[in-house]
């Protein structure tokens, strides 16, 4: 299967200054791709980053490594094999947090892989020790059975058993070495294939970079030409817009003047109509003044009559007052006469009774 990417992000890559061990030296001019790779054949993990045709990060992750966040968007880790410290500057805190989490996951996976390989080694060593332990008692049992009659056989039998054990160990070691050799050959072949692919990819990318540079130069020239044309067109558009604004203002002013002219013409027509009516109005005014004069004279006569009537009314009122007084006196006298007549009637009635 070879190496496969398991996580990819983008960041600015830095390396510690090898002389001062304090300052950071940028390894890329801009943000580049940083990826985690998993090698299933060797059961290992690596962080790889390529800037153009240059490999700027090739760090194999071990359980002893630690990724440290030194700021909100910057993190670093030390690689003892590469004898350097790598630093990554991210565009956001989320990207840094995700990269740190992935680093911890890969670190734990590398630790588990190391523990499994150690367990396998211990199992193989214990197995070989058990086999040697089994061979040694059998030789002791053979020597004890033969007794002391044949000392030469006693000396030869353990040596043969030891040789057989060593031969078995050598055979197992040779088999393991053959297996390891085949494994390393497979890994070497895989690495060669990967290197060949990387070389092809680098050559292709370098060729693409050259073509891209040419295309970029042509695009820049075209963009410069287009920018100049755009600037000219924008200037022309600005002039045209200014002319349009002026025309709009002039059209608005013309409409206002036309409206004012129409109003003035309407006023003039009204004045002409009024001028035609003026003689009639003058005649009407003269007749009205004559009528007013007549009415004023009549008012004066009526005022004289009203004054006379008021005097007559005052005289009549005075006469009424006088007549009321006379009438009251007459009524009083009439009441006295009626009383006297009543007394006279009573006297006459008494006289008639007496007679």
TrEMBL record:
Q: Give the region (Disordered) as residue ranges.
A: 110-154
- Cytoplasm recorded as keyword: yes
Instruction: Output the Gene3D superfamilies linked to this UniProt entry.
Output: 1.20.5.1700, Pleckstrin-homology domain (PH domain)/Phosphotyrosine-binding domain (PTB) (2.30.29.30)
Does Cell membrane show up as a keyword for this record?
no
Regions of compositional bias (Polar residues) in chain numbering: 135-147
Provide the GO biological process annotations. G protein-coupled glutamate receptor signaling pathway
Q: According to the lineage, what is the superkingdom? A: Eukaryota
Residue ranges that the Swiss-Prot or TrEMBL entry lists as coiled coil: 167-319
Query: What are the GO cellular component annotations?
Result: cytoplasm; postsynaptic density
Q: Where is the WH1 domain?
A: 1-110
Composition skew (Basic and acidic residues), residue ranges:
110-134
Q: What is its main location?
A: cytoplasm
Q: Which GO terms describe its molecular function?
A: G protein-coupled glutamate receptor binding
Q: Where in the cell is it found?
A: Cytoplasm; Postsynaptic density
* SMART domains (UniProt xref): WH1 (SM00461)
Name one matching Pfam family. WH1
Please give the family membership noted in the entry.
Answer: Belongs to the Homer family.
Report the protein name in the record. Answer: WH1 domain-containing protein
């Amino acid at each position: 299967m070879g190496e496969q990417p398991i996580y990819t992000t983008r960041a600015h890559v830095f390396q510690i200054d090898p002389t001062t061990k304090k300052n950071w030296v940028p390894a890329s001019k801009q943000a580049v791709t940083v990826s985690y790779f998993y090698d299933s054949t060797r059961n290992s993990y690596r962080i790889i980053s390529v800037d153009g045709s240059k490999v700027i990060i090739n760090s194999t992750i071990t359980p002893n490594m630690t990724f440290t966040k030194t700021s909100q968007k910057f993190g670093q880790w030390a690689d003892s094999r590469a004898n350097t410290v790598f630093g990554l500057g991210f565009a956001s805190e989320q990207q840094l947090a995700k990269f740190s989490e992935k680093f911890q996951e890969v670190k734990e996976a590398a630790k588990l892989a190391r523990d499994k390989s150690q367990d396998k080694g211990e199992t193989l060593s214990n197995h070989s020790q058990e086999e040697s332990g089994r061979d040694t008692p059998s030789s002791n049992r053979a020597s004890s059975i033969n007794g002391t009659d044949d000392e030469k056989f006693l000396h030869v039998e353990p040596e043969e058993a030891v040789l057989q054990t060593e031969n078995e160990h050598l055979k197992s070691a040779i088999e393991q070495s053959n297996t390891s050799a085949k494994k390393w050959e497979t890994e070497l072949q895989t690495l060669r294939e990967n290197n060949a692919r990387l070389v092809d990819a680098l050559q292709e990318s370098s060729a693409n970079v050259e073509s891209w540079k040419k295309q970029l130069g042509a695009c820049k020239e075209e963009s410069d030409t287009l920018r100049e044309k755009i600037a000219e067109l924008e200037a022309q558009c600005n002039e045209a817009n200014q002319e349009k604004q002026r025309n709009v203002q002039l059209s608005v002013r013309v409409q206002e003047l036309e409206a004012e002219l129409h109003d003035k013409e309407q006023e003039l027509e009204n004045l002409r109509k009024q001028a035609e009516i003026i003689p009639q109005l003058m005649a009407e005014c003269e007749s009205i003044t004559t009528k007013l004069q007549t009415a004023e004279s009549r008012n004066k006569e009526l005022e004289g009559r009203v004054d006379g009537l008021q005097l007559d009314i005052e005289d009549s009122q005075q006469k009424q007052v006088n007549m009321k007084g006379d009438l009251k006196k007459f009524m009083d006298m009439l009441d006295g006469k009626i009383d006297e007549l009543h007394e006279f009637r009573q006297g006459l009635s008494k006289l008639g009774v007496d007679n």
